[in-house]
Amino acid sequence: MGQSDALQRATERLDAAADQLEVLLSGVFADAEGGGSIAELKDQVHFLSQERERLLADLDAERNRVRRLKAANEEVSGRLEAVMVTLNHYLVLSAILFAIGAAGVFVRRNLITILLSIEIMLNAVNLTFVAVGRYLGTVDGQIITFFVMTVAAAEAAVGLALVIALFRHRETLSPDAFTLLKW
Question: Is the pLDDT of residue 1 over 60?
Fold first, then answer.
């Protein structure tokens, strides 16, 4: 619940209490004019002063609660600023992903693993596009990422179709077996 909600709730309670006091005071004055006893008037005045004290205590409690909420809010805001992820964090992660993908392309000896490594490299590039777009405050990075993902999906479909066709012909997925493109 926000601070303004707490203050609004406390204000509404005070308004309701003021209305109750007004009703009680009008009753006291009506009793005084109508010849009510002094003991009844004293009881009503005593009740009204107790009600006033209770309402003041409630108001102080709400003010203290709002102060605690403000302090907690400032503390959380300070922690969030300390943990903010910057553009550099995204770029470092993207570079690590790209390096893992490149290593997979150069080191692995399986066509499917090579295709997966290319996908990791494309995702690293997508991360860079989105991070820079967010940093600049534009959606250009997200739009480019959409097109890169479309191309990656097509690449995966065509690449897997080629891998299946090559496997049927040579019965291996090693790229060394496909040095000659003769059937």
Answer: no
Provide the 10 A C-beta neighbour count for residue 16: 11
The rounded percent of the chain whose pLDDT value lies above 70 is 81
Q: Is the pLDDT of residue 8 over 80?
A: no
What's the alpha-carbon Rg for the chain, to the nearest Å?
Answer: 37
Angle among Cα 125, 101, 169 to the nearest 5 degrees reads 115
End-to-end CA separation in angstroms for the chain? 71
Q: Which residue has the higher pLDDT, 8 or 140?
A: 140
User: What phi, psi does 121 have (nearest 5°)?
Assistant: -65, -40
With cut-offs at 50, 70 and 90, classify the pLDDT of residue 27.
low
Beta carbons within 10 angstroms of residue 141's beta carbon: 19
The answer to whether 9 touches 63, Cβ cutoff 8 Å, is: no
Q: What is the DSSP letter of 139?
A: S
